[in-house]
Amino acid sequence: MRFVDEFRDPALASTVLERIRQLVESPALRNRETIRVMEVCGGHTHTIFRYGLDQLLPDRLELIHGPGCPVCVLPREYIDTAITIARKPDVILASFGDLLRVPGTHMSLQQARAEGADIRTLYSPLDALQLARQYPDKIVVFLAIGFETTMPATALTLLQAEAEQLHNFRMLTRHISIIPTLKSLLDDPTLAVDGFIGPGHVSMVIGTHPYHFIAEHYRKPLVVSGFEPLDILQSLLMVLAQLATDRARIENQYARVVHNAGNRQAQVAIGSVFESCSRSTWRGLGAITQSGVVLKPRFAEFDAERAFGCEASGEGVDDSVEGSCCGEVLKGKLQPQDCPLFAVQCTPANPVGALMVSSEGACAACYQYRKGAH
Amino acid sequence: MPDITAERIELVHGEGGARSRELIERMLVAAFDNPELNRLEDQARIELAGLMSQGDRLAFTTDSYVVEPVEFPGGNIGTLAVNGTLNDLAVGGARPRFLSCGLILEEGLELALLQRVINSMAEAARDAGVAIVTGDTKVVPRGKADQLFINTSGIGVIPTNVDLSAAHCQPGDVILINGFMGDHGAAILQARGELALEANVYTDCQSLHTLVSAMLAVCPDIHAMRDATRGGVATVLSEFAQASSVGICLQESELPVRPQVRGMCEILGLEPLYLANEGKLVAVVPRQSASRVLEAMQRHPAGQHAAIIGQVTAELPGKVQLANAFGSSRLLEPLAGEQLPRIC
Amino acid sequence: MCLGVPGQVVELVDAAAGMAWVEISGVRRCVSLACLLSDGCSVESLLGQWVLVHVGFAMSLVDADEAERTLGLIRELERLAEDDDAIRG
To answer: How does pLDDT run across A258-270, given as a tens digit for each residue?
Structure first.
């Protein structure tokens, strides 16, 4: 596969790994007890575990898995609301596969489907639109989640629904913004991270300029990275090179896809459809100012929460299950295997939190791929 | 095409009266056509002497088929129902001989569809040299079955001295597969249509017993063999590792996957190792015989793309590892639930 | 939030709606090109181009020159390592 296989070349990976080792051993970095680099994005976490990249790195270089997993941070009440809506007569609920097994308060969407709710797995919101055209007597509700990567898809689909006057189409939206989330992480005085591997596909939309505050204000390097093993290794090397020369800059390793200005058409679409909401609460992360977005009043008729009278209270809810450490793992303070429930009460077959369900959740990735963890 | 005036199955077709008999005789018996079935007794009668001349153990298996959609690229539920059960016999080293066919039909099922399924079953049985000698047909009200469900049971004879078992794997053994992984699972995903992908992907559904015979002819001492159906190759290897208390190590670069199946997996975030197959077996073979068995497989139509994919070790007993070209490895857990397409 | 795959735009489906078939390793998916269209970039001009696809939308062109440059930087490291070895003898 073009633009994929070249970035999985093991010989080139060896070269980069050797250079990483040399840098970590160099005079500039040799005296640091640990060098801690956080990969923000869940997709990067997935690649790291899938290719066992952490097994290949020097011991003093520690990878911290960050909160960039939009499924992991969805409040439980979102799943509960989705199930309530799915149970209403003549509703077809359409969702990405990632959400099917996320535990709500009582059950998951998959369990609700087993009880008779019409819940379908789709690849694209455009397919949900097609369902609405195909079933005019049903209300089709799409679960729209994700960081800025997926906001343009939601926005463009809604614009299309509006243009076609598809009155049987709704969306239950819970998108999350990366910059406030990063800022909240950086403002945590207990955060101990030396540098960042920045999200690749979020940056494809927002560009690299929004990250400058991380370098300027917080004095930490951030390298926007692609998703193949070579991308992550090269990005790590770039972060280390900055640390070794005491620099803090935003760099773009994923230049074949990410432009510094981002994607203008995507940004315009997002701006037409969404507005920021002042305070949103996320599972494991708590309340983060300006981190959520809501549909503009123009799109109120497509808002599933309004249509079905399920509007969230907006108050923070303590989402955590007794003994679980989802929040600490999400913020990189704990590794998955340090949570007392890991691989005991909390497994992929019986997940307690969403980090064990989402394929890019640190706990699921660690459980699935880690050698000898259990 | 039998002269049945209705276009769809009705409840009366399952009630045992004239309409039932008409359906059975004109559709099922006409298609499956063999002396034992044609007698239309309440049971099939099989000469024991004939069976005993072929081996010393009877192999007996049953499977039910509820696949949705009922028709998919390269096959249908009928092809699966015959080949799937034959393969369960074959991987025990048995020569399959006879099948039963139990049908549960949903009221409203199109007769033309049922005819296509029956014809596929008849063709698969003929190609495999087995006879469908007994059966049963029931009809349930609309909504109580997803178009049709099929159960097939099969009997076969295991030759003396053939003793395949998941518990027989030994460190040093070599693991082989007879071709590309994941074709069936990918074909089904595509046929379901929800993901709106288009690809030339077809089920790999085929009977494997003549391939197995060819393999046993060059190496009677094959240790273990299973067909990699639901849960894929990874799940079967997990079963071997646990039953034999050994470790298994696969080489990622050696796994055969078609480009289109790889493409679907990359788009949907799936792993070919966990996709279902309907014409693939995994064999565990003593090291000294591995190249001979591989050659015998590659000479056979069902094994043209056969490959060595890994080996059995004493390390990490009960676990399956996937070693990659970067020098690291990861564990392959048995599938917790159906693989779901993901966007994250 | 990240599963994006490079594919090639192979056939227009509905130029007015900005929809095209994108092919990824022999698999085709109907994809919206809306995020790439502008006055300077028409649907027709995207035929044959490589794009990054996420949930049915082409979100960016894949720049072959940049891809080559990125790999080139790594190959340069390889060359430097060989030079080092040669120097050390």
So the answer is: 999 999 999 999 9
| Token reading at C45 | 């001009």
Residue A362 lies in a domain: yes
Sheet holding A169-175, edge to edge: A119-121, A91-95, A139-146, A169-175
Tell me B315's DSSP state: S
Q: Check whether residue A252 and residue A339 sit in a common domain.
A: no
Q: Does the beta-carbon distance from B198 to C27 stay under 8 Å?
A: yes
Same domain, A229 and A342: no
Mean pLDDT, chain C, integer: 93
Are residues B343 and A56, on separate chains, in Cβ contact within 8 Å?
no
User: Which residue segment(s) compose the domain that C22 sits in?
Assistant: 5-88
Architecture of domain B11-158: 2-Layer Sandwich (3.30)
Does pLDDT of A371 surpass 80? no
Length of chain A: 374
**ipTM topping 0.85:** yes
Interface of C with B (CB under 8 A): 1-3, 5, 21, 24-30, 53-55
Instruction: Say yes or no: A316 and A352 in one domain.
Output: no
Hey, are the CB atoms on B264 and C27 less than 8 Å from each other?
Answer: yes
The residue-averaged pLDDT of A37-41 equals: 95
Domain contains A374: no
Compute CA A251 distance to the chain's CA centroid, rounded to the nearest angstrom: 21
Which chains would you list as touching B if contact means 3+ CB atom pairs under 8 Å?
Answer: A, C
Enter the tokens of residue C39. 């006055």
What are the structure tokens assigned to C56, written together?
A: 């049915």
Q: Given this structure, which CATH class describes domain B166-331?
A: alpha beta
> Which residues of chain B are within 8 Å of residue A146 when distances are taken between CB atoms?
343-344
CB A363 within 8 A of CB A339: yes
Q: Where are the domains of chain B?
A: 11-158, 166-331
Maximum Cα interatomic distance, chain C, rounded to a whole number of Å = 64
pTM score, two decimals? 0.94
Is C29 in Cβ contact with A256 (below 8 Å)? no
Are A84 and A106 found together in one domain? yes
Q: Whole domain around residue A352: which residue ranges?
A: 326-369
Which residues on chain C are in Cβ contact (under 8 Å) with B198? Answer: 21, 27-29
Q: Which residues of chain B have pLDDT under 70?
A: 1-6
Report the pLDDT value the prediction gives residue B47, as an integer from 0 to 100: 94
| A94 in any annotated domain | yes
The CATH number for C13's domain is 2.30.30.140
What's the whole-number average pLDDT of chain B? 95
CB distance from A67 to chain C under 8 Å? no
Neighbours of B69 (CB within 10 A): 13
- Between B and C, how many residue pairs show a Cβ–Cβ distance under 8 A? 42
- B263–C25 CB contact, under 8 Å: yes
